[in-house]
Amino acid sequence: MLNVYNVTKKYGKITANNNISLSVKDSEIAILIGPNGAGKSTIIKCIAGLLRFEGKIDISGYENKSLEAKKILGYVPEMPAVYDLLTVYEHLEFIARAYELKENWKIYANELLERFELLDKKDKLGKELSKGMQQKLSICTAILHKPKVIIFDEPMVGLDPHAIKELKNLFVELKEGGASLLISTHMLDSVENYWDVAHIMMNGSFAATKYNNDIDNEKSLEELFFEITENKN
Ligand code: ADP
Q1: d(CA 44, ligand 1 centre) in Å
Q2: What's the CA gap between 108 and 146, in Å, rounded?
Q3: What phi-psi label fits residue 103: left (phi over 0), alpha (psi between -120 and 50 degrees) or beta?
Q4: 50 lines ligand 1 (CB under 6 A)
Q5: Is the distance from the beta carbon of residue 41 to the nearest atom of ligand 1 less than 6 Å?
Q6: Residue 215 — φ and ψ, nearest 5°?
């Protein structure tokens, strides 16, 4: 479970997040959508513990910057950061050591590499990977330790159709396994129907929140998004 309470983040005079609160329950997928500059990456980075902010963020009850929280958090950054001189497999080994995973991590690692068509690239160096391959590796390393809360910042960017399909299946499997997922995107057509709650972000705040199971859903997410972001009726 992820809880964000009244988070405000300013960069100098710019208020990138203005008093944001949200929760993502166990077995729930929340999406953050909004135009460029809305503040999506900023709140994700605050949750990941990379920025200072006013307010409070809990990961399954632990303050987000605590070691306990970090052990159960997975983060897929907007820009994949791979080590030039580690191979694909060594990246996973590095994570396994850092999180002190049991020996059977290799089974899950191989499964992930196969799903994302990286198994035959496992001996390639980070610097030899294309942007899409780096992104796929970044996803594998973020979930290898089976985190309870996973935050994805624009995870579809740069992926090929096979990887997008795998990633969508993975979202649903992680949810079914009890994880809380927060996914930011500006690609509305990529989110389709797997989400439970959608927050539409504008100028650092939530302009609207929509629940997928709401029986009074008259408007599609896309209609609501354009109505809000383009101020149309
Ligand atoms: P999004 O992810 O929705 O595109 P961001 O969270 O990246 O939005 O940005 C929100 C606002 O904060 C924007 O106005 C952006 O210019 C500003 N911003 C983001 N990062 C920085 C930074 N490191 N320094 C100054 N301003 C920033």
Answers
A1: 11
A2: 9
A3: alpha
A4: no
A5: yes
A6: -70, -15
